[in-house]
Amino acid sequence: MSEVAELLAELTRRGVTLEPRGDDLAYHPRRRVSAELREQLRQHKTELLLLLRGEVTATEPALTSIANPAPARPPYSVVIAEPDPTTLDALLMSVLGQSPAPAEILLVGKPQRRLKKITEPIRRVPVRFVRSPLDARSEHLLLIDPNTLLTRDWCRSALDMLASPRIAATFSDHELLETGGRTQYPDRVTHEKLARSGLAAPTVMVQRSALVPLWHAGLTIPALLRDLSRSGWEVARHTTPILLRGDGEQQYFDRQQLEHEIVTLFVPLSGREHIWPQLRTFLEQQTWPHNQIRLVLCDTSRSTRFRKTVRTWLARCDYHDAHWFSLDVPTSGLADAPRDQQLLAVNEILCRIYNRMREHITTDFAWILEDDVIPPDDVLKRLLQAFDENVATVSAPYRSRFDGRYLIWSRERVAAPNGPACNGVHQLAPPLPDRPQVHDIRGSGFGCLVARAEVLRDHIFCLPPGHTHYDVRFFMELPQHWRRIVDWTCECRHLHNVARPQSKITTRHLIYHLTPFATNDIWLRNVRQLLKRITLFNGRRVIAVATGDDLVPPQEIRAAFGTHEVEILTRPNSRELRENATFLPLLECVADPDPKAATFYAHAKGVAKDVLCLGDPLGSRYWRNAMYHELLDDWERIAELLIDHAVVGTHRRQHSEQPRIYPDGQSESPWHFAGTFFWFRNRDAFATTKWQDVWQPTGWGAEAWPGRMFEFDQSACVAYDGLAECYDPESYDPQLEDD
Questions:
Q1: Which residues share a beta bridge with 509?
Q2: Tens of pLDDT along 545-557?
Q3: What is the CATH number of the domain that holds 212?
Q4: What's the rounded Cα separation, in Å, for the pair 182 and 174?
Q5: CB–CB of 368/448 below 8 Å?
Q6: Helices 276-285 and 304-316 sit at what angle, rounded to 10 degrees?
Q7: Domain end: 494, 517, 542, which one?
Q8: From residue 25, how far is each of 41, 58, 85, 96, 537 by CA, in Å?
Q9: Do residues 677 and 631 lie in contact, with contact meaning Cβ atoms separated by under 8 Å?
Q10: Which candidate, 689, 695, 643, places its Cα nearest to that of 669?
Q11: Domain that holds residue 694
């Protein structure tokens, strides 16, 4: 970067404006100019005055004789969209200092008085106010953002790149003025890369002949580059960087200017006339600009009356880019048939529907909406806001019409030997209100989903042997580098879905282990967390207290529970068995296969802080408080999961290939709830003596017990599923402190 460019960049960072006054150079506000900057202004005053007056013809002295003169570069026009009076003077100086100089400078917008005052001193280069970049007279147009500054020879480098007839536009890396550093963009970008990469190139030089067929009001630079690439043009990076004001840390939605995105909305219509009015109302009321929607309706109804109703509405609606086509299916009415009877037939038809959809996608994003799913009116914007360059799909949650469970899942169920390729999925429950509502998932139904068009085009919808669900297979086949997201704030109504069955559990037991080291108060902090929720437990409340030297006596533990009814069970402390020393005695206290009873097991976590701590004590604090919060603060959520699952916990980890994952190297199980907080149904635990048979007399035997007692597919995880860094404080949101 030249010294003058560096000086301009520093003045811009400080908000300093330069103004020529005869042979003097004025700057304000003066208090922002240090003594060092004043000296640099004095040294470069002549160059700056020439720039401000528009009298510079080159940044280097011209040679009087050149043996092999370089070919003359074509003229170019500079187009400044939405010029900002606070930055325009510095921007114009960086433009006027280019070699070759521009043929003209165009300001898009109304000729404001402040802007005219800044441009009036420029004499050598014509300056005009215009309504559109197409008013430029040169073949090459520099579309420049007000927040950038051109470095020396930027335009020369760009013109050299555009000498290739296949290149329609060229951009460059950015030197970030606010934060420092420099971007590292690829030399060539494809349409797919432009659609997902978040390439922030607000200043480009483009060929007019490539721009004219694509130009329309509101066209953004990211959209222009994607359209050029989609049309077969090359978009390339040249080597001279540009200076960018700001920190470059815009959200992906803003950086990609997705508010201007045109999205394909694909709706498969099953012909159910009783739900069409509600779908029609949603399509009329949804808030994404209707001129930015390419509406595609796939009609499988076979009903002449229904087809006429839909097409009449389509002719009158304000979706101007709207399409309807029919698709014959073998049997009508399958959408409402019991899925257990027509499962494969329905999914095979849906494969046909979505393969036809792939033929109709001409945009970078596709929004799939089933005809009986009604989302919030602003759902599309909210789903698009969850995208980044690594996200393939964002889903809005909804409940199944057939069992009332959310069609959002964390993983596929383990396939049985010689059985189907997929044995179902582990469906998720909504997070608590203070937890992140937008998070990663494994997959979802297609009821309301926004996907990148490229991942839909790359997938052929079909059901090979062993597969029964098109949506599960889609997410199984989606490459692992793609993220899949759900936004729980966008929950949809699924018309006529059945209500979830009510939980039959009416009795809730508590069994709890406590090792009260006298050297710290961690045991008491755990008890306080428990006391906040103690009334949840209307069955037995059994507290096993470890006794011995350096431990708080049991009577103090009892006193800590105040007037609440609890049973105290004492056992000598064992540093080898830890909480496992009391695990079987605690289970014995509630060993009744009552189908209306569930039991919560936990232990005072982190109490060995002064004796042995396997990780960050702060992370341990957030970990334990997260488990109390997730498992005890919304019983209805837990009760719903216990309808279908034998055991429910947090921090679930599956490790069948490494069963002795535990620190003692002896405890063994194919999976576990890290932290050992979990609920279980009594009828599943105590129907046989298995609960005693699988217990191991080892240090981590209690943590391993659920994974030995229950199959992985019998378990559910309400939060932090698969989390490997449990002791990392940054893993937790919210980070819950002790009371």
A1: 599
A2: 999 999 999 999 9
A3: 3.90.550.10
A4: 6
A5: yes
A6: 10
A7: 494
A8: 8, 21, 19, 17, 79
A9: yes
A10: 695
A11: 507-731
